[in-house]
Design a protein that fits this description.
By secondary structure, the chain is an all-alpha fold. The chain has helices spanning 23-28, 31-53, 56-62, 68-82, 86-122, 140-170, 177-211, 214-234, 248-261, 323-349, 355-361, 381-406, 414-446, 462-486, 492-521, 539-563; strands spanning 129-130, 136-137, 310-311, 314-315, 363-364, 454-457. Strands 1-2 form a two-stranded antiparallel ribbon. Strands 3-4 form a two-stranded antiparallel ribbon. This is Peptide transporter 1.
Length: 574
C-alpha cells in the first residue's frame, strides 16, 4: 500500500507499491517523515474552520441583521452542508482524483471561499453599512456574497474532511507490522492537532471578532487556511499515494445486480471455486485482494460463474464479480450497524453547543468576584483541553498498560476503544443532569425563579465538558481508525465521509428529540422540559433521556461488536 506517483516503475497491478525491488524508495517516503505536513495542514484548517464558524450566528445577527431563529437556521443548514459535501469529495477521491489531488483542489476552493468571506466583512461596498455597533443594513447583494463565500467553504471542506485522515494513514504500510503499529498512533495525534486548532479558534479568534472586528476575525482564519495549503504542498515529495480505484458505486451496483440475477443459483461448498483473478494483485486499482468471509452469503452468488457470464470471450462484470469485489460490499454492509450506533453518541456530543450553553447561561458567569463575564459557549474550551490532555495519556500510558493485559498490539481493539467512549458518554449526561438537579433545587430553595443567572458558578459545568472530551478520545478517534482500517482499500475516503455523517444525523436526532419532548411536555399549559426560562423547566430530564438512550445504544453496540467480522486482506496477518 502506498506508492509515489513519480515512481511508476514501482506500481503493481492493484495500484499499490511493491518496495521489494527498491526498498530505498520506501525509506524515503511516508511514515512520520510525511505526517508533520499533513498534521500541520489539519491543525491550520481546523483553526480556520472553527475560527470562522464558532461565532457565525452572531455575525448573521449583528451584521446581516437576521432574527435569532433565522440566524440559527442558516447556521444549521450551512453546518449540515459541511457534513454532506464530504460524500462528494470522498467519491471523487476514491473514484477518479486520488486523495492527494482531491485535498489539493478542494483546499484551493476553500481558500477562495475564506478570502471572499473576509472581503465581504471588510471591504467598503461589500460589507454592510452600520449606523451603530449592532445596527446594520445589509443589501441583498452583500448578503448573497456572504452566503456564496460560506458555501464555497462548505464545498472546500467536503474534499478535505474525508481525505486528510485517510491520507495520513496511507503513509503507513499495512504489510509492515512496525508501520502498522504507528498508524494507530497517527490517528491519536491527528485528533490532537484538530483540537489544538479548535482551542486557538474558540478563544483567541472569538475574542478578536467580538473586540477588534470581523474583518480581522475572518482574515486571520483565511491566512491560516493559506498556511494549511502551503504545509500540505511542502510535503509532496514525501507522500505515498494510492491510485484511485474507479467508481465504488459502480462496483457495488455490479455485485447487487449479479447477485439478484443469480437468485436461484447455488453457491458451491468449495469457496475456492468462486471467481477471482488469477493474478497476485486485485483487479481493482488501489486495493488488495480480500479473502472470502462466511457471512452475508447471498452476495457470494455474484462470484459464481455460469456460461452466460462471458460476452464474446470476455468476463461480463455486470454478471460475475470477483470475490474481492463481493467482499467490498460485505465490508460496507458490516460497517453500517457500527456506523448507526455513532448517531446517539453524536447527539450527546451536540449538547455542548445547545443545552450545555443554555444551562451555563442560567448560572453565574462571572470570573470570581470580578465584573468580567465568561461567554457560556467558551466553556467548550474544557472539552478541547480534555482531548489535548487525554490523547498523550492514551497513547503513552493507557496503550502500553492495555497491551500487557490484552496482548493486542494497539492495547485495545478499535471496537473496544469505541465502546469505552460510548460508556464514558453516559456519565457525561448523568453529570449534566445531576448538576441541573442541584441547580433547580437551589432555585426552589431561594425562590430564584425569575433570576437570569442563579448564583451558582458556571464552572460546575467543567466535569461534563471534560467527560465529553474523554469520550471523544475513545469513540471519535477509534471511529476514524476503524472506518479507515475496515473500509475496502479503494473506498476509504468514502467510508471516512460516511462516518462524518453521524455528526449531522446526531444533530438532527437531538433536534427531533427536543421537538417531541416539547410537544408532549407543554400540554395543558405546562412550561415543558426546555422553556425559555430554564428555572421553570427540567432539562435534567432531557439529559437523563439521553443517558438512557446511550445505555440502550451501548447494549446494541456490544451485540453488534461481538458478531462483527473483520475484513481479511490476502497475505495480511491480523
Amino acid at each position: 500500500m502506498g506508492e509515489v506517483f513519480a515512481e511508476d516503475d514501482l506500481y503493481t497491478k492493484d495500484g499499490t507499491v511493491d518496495y521489494h525491488n527498491d526498498p530505498a524508495k520506501k525509506n524515503e517516503t511516508g511514515t512520520w517523515k510525511a505526517c508533520p505536513f499533513i498534521l500541520g495542514n489539519e491543525c491550520c484548517e481546523r483553526l480556520a474552520y472553527y475560527g470562522m464558524s464558532t461565532n457565525l450566528v452572531l455575525y448573521f445577527k449583528k451584521r446581516l441583521n437576521q432574527h435569532s431563529a433565522a440566524a440559527s437556521k442558516n447556521v444549521s443548514n450551512w453546518s449540515g452542508t459541511c457534513y454532506i459535501t464530504p460524500l462528494i469529495g470522498a467519491f471523487l477521491a476514491d473514484a477518479y482524483l486520488g486523495r492527494y489531488w482531491t485535498i489539493a483542489c478542494f483546499s484551493i476552493i476553500y481558500v477562495i471561499g475564506m478570502t471572499l468571506l473576509t472581503l465581504s466583512a471588510s471591504v467598503p461596498g461589500l460589507k454592510p453599512s452600520c449606523s451603530g455597533e449592532d445596527v446594520c443594513h445589509p443589501k441583498e447583494l452583500q448578503t448573497a456574497v456572504t452566503f456564496v463565500a460560506l458555501y464555497l467553504i462548505a464545498l472546500g471542506t467536503g474534499g478535505i474532511k474525508p481525505c486528510v485522515s485517510s491520507y495520513g494513514a496511507d503513509q503507513f504500510d499495512d504489510a509492515d507490522e512496525v508501520e502498522k503499529k504507528h498508524k494507530s498512533s497517527f490517528f491519536n495525534w491527528f485528533y490532537f492537532s484538530i483540537n489544538i486548532g479548535a482551542l486557538v479558534a474558540s478563544s483567541v479568534l472569538v475574542w478578536i471578532q467580538d473586540n477588534v472586528g470581523w474583518g480581522w476575525g475572518f482574515g486571520i482564519p483565511a491566512v491560516t487556511m493559506a498556511i494549511a495549503v502551503v504545509s500540505f504542498f511542502s510535503g509532496t515529495r514525501l507522500y505515498r499515494n494510492q491510485k484511485p480505484g474507479g467508481s465504488p458505486l459502480t462496483r457495488i451496483c455490479q455485485v447487487l445486480l449479479a447477485s439478484f440475477r443469480k437468485f436461484k443459483v447455488d453457491v458451491p461448498e468449495d469457496k475456492s471455486l468462486l471467481y477471482e483473478t488469477t493474478d497476485a494483485e486485485s483487479a481493482i486499482a488501489g486495493s488488495r485482494k480480500l479473502d472470502h468471509t462466511k457471512d452475508l452469503g447471498f452476495f457470494d452468488k455474484a462470484a459464481v460463474q455460469t456460461e452466460s457470464d462471458h460476452t464474446k470471450g470476455n468476463i461480463d462484470s455486470w454478471r460475475v464479480c470477483t470475490v474481492t469485489q463481493v467482499e467490498e460490499l460485505k465490508s460496507i454492509i458490516r460497517l453500517l450497524p457500527i456506523w448507526a450506533t455513532g448517531i446517539i453518541f453524536s447527539a450527546v456530543y451536540s449538547q455542548m453547543s445547545t443545552l450545555f450553553v443554555l444551562q451555563g447561561a442560567s448560572m453565574d458567569t462571572r470570573l470570581g468576584n470580578s465584573s468580567f463575564k465568561i461567554p457560556p459557549a467558551s466553556l467548550s474550551i474544557f472539552d478541547t483541553v480534555s482531548v489535548i490532555f487525554w490523547v498523550p495519556i492514551y497513547d503513552q500510558a493507557i496503550v502500553p498498560v492495555a497491551r500487557k493485559i490484552t496482548g493486542h498490539k494497539n492495547g485495545l481493539t478499535q471496537l473496544q476503544r469505541m465502546g469505552t467512549g460510548l460508556f464514558i458518554s453516559i456519565f457525561a449526561m448523568l453529570s449534566a443532569g445531576i448538576l441541573e438537579l442541584y441547580r433547580l433545587k437551589y432555585v426552589k430553595r431561594h425562590n430564584y425563579y425569575e433570576l437570569d443567572e442563579v448564583p451558582m458558578s458556571i464552572f460546575w459545568q467543567v466535569p461534563q465538558y471534560f467527560l465529553i472530551g474523554c469520550a471523544e478520545v475513545f469513540t471519535f478517534i477509534g471511529q476514524l481508525e476503524f472506518f479507515y482500517d475496515q473500509a475496502p482499500d479503494a473506498m476509504r475516503s468514502l467510508c471516512s465521509a460516511l462516518s462524518l455523517t453521524t455528526v449531522a444525523l446526531g444533530n438532527y436526532l437531538s433536534s427531533m428529540l427536543v421537538t417531541i419532548v416539547m410537544k408532549i411536555t407543554t400540554k395543558n399549559g405546562k412550561p415543558g422540559w426546555i422553556p425559555d426560562n430554564l428555572n421553570y423547566g427540567h432539562i435534567d430530564y432531557f439529559y437523563y433521556l439521553l443517558a438512557v438512550l446511550s445505555v440502550l445504544n451501548l447494549g446494541v453496540y456490544l451485540v453488534i461488536a461481538k458478531w462483527y467480522t473483520y475484513k481479511r486482506p490476502v497475505g495480511t496477518l491480523r
